[in-house]
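Hello everyone,

My group is preparing for a crystallization screen and wants a predicted model to guide construct design. The compound we'll soak is pyridoxal-5'-phosphate. Before spending weeks at the bench, it would help to have a computed complex in hand. I've included the protein sequence and the ligand's SMILES below. Output in structure-token form would be ideal because that's what our pipeline reads.
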Amino acid sequence: MEEIYLDNGATTKPFDAVVDVMVDCLSNQYGNPSSLHRKGMEAENILKESRNKVAGVLGVQPGQILFTSGGTESNNTAIRGIARSYSNRGKHIISSKIEHPSVYNTLEDLQKDGFTVTYLDVDREGLVDLQQLEKSIRKDTILVSIMGVNNEIGTVQPLDEIGARIKRINPLAFFHTDCVQAFMKVPLDPETMKIDLLSLSGHKFHGPKGVGVLYFRKGINLRPWQTGGSQEYGLRSGTENVPVIAGLGKAVEIYSKHFGEYSAGMRMMKQRLREGLEKRVTDIKINTPVDEKKAAPHILSVSFRGVKGEVLVHSLEKYNIFISTRSACSSRQARASGVLTAIGLTGEEIEGTVRFGLSSFNTMGEMDRVIDILPGEVESLRKLFRR
Ligand SMILES: Cc1ncc(COP(=O)(O)O)c(C=O)c1O
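Reply:
Good plan to model first. Here are the tokens for the complex, ready for your pipeline.
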């Protein structure tokens, strides 16, 4: 039975070329980038190349690209860095009610140190309330952190409108955005969107796990929380993880050449899946915005009444179909999803919610197979739960 992997919101399969580059790096280019000899220079050049590729795609300077261990670390570095460097200006931060735990829990932690956080509401489609944002910006607001694409429902925030409002009301407040699900899926332009800090992660676009990037605007002073040998501009001490950085660079290179084609393909597959499910299964609710302008190409969140999402995940597993309940990092937690609660879902709807995560590796044939199998599984589970 062929595998149908539809959990690409959680992680993606690396491109073959990414694996090749990493293996070559581990076997041959194993020098330390800080070493003075040729082996060191070779490793240093790999870092430089990857930095240039990421910078090129974002339209920024390579010196504004910091390599980290992933989205979680990028978010922590940005938020804690700003909080530690600029608390003399103020201790107020604005965020939203649908952020990833790596943002949300970091802000919760900062509140223990005297920071105040305003969490913006979202509407039924997961869009932040821009008027509430305007009203919430204060003189002592040092940071606004709002994600680009939500990891559970795929909503795209209007980053350009958010950036413009922040800078109009308080030009000194920094704008950070968690773009782990947005990078390579929707157009991003830190310059025109007035983004000061942007996080991304390698494993969401067919790169390796354990590597990410924090873009930071020139002139921003981030007080590092890890000190040592002063690698990465002194912001992240420790010998650089050259193989994964090489892999991330390769994924950026490949993905950026096919950006339009991959996005269009995923949008078509998502539409086929949504329409097929709407036609074949009763009592369902689509949580992802149907208007493609408000939605990323790769995420479809659906609630099935009378079914437990977790049980559905396992029942599809026997057909080698892999989906998830919500985000990978929260699906093992008992707590109800904050995102689904924020968009107004009932407890029963939340329990019956699953997320399909698409990638450029999926096919229309796979969507048809899911549409064939899933309705029968939902029906059997409903009968079972009704008993
Ligand atoms: C929106 C978002 N932010 C941050 C992260 C964390 O990224 P990483 O797994 O690279 O730490 C994820 C991962 O699921 C995510 O979806």
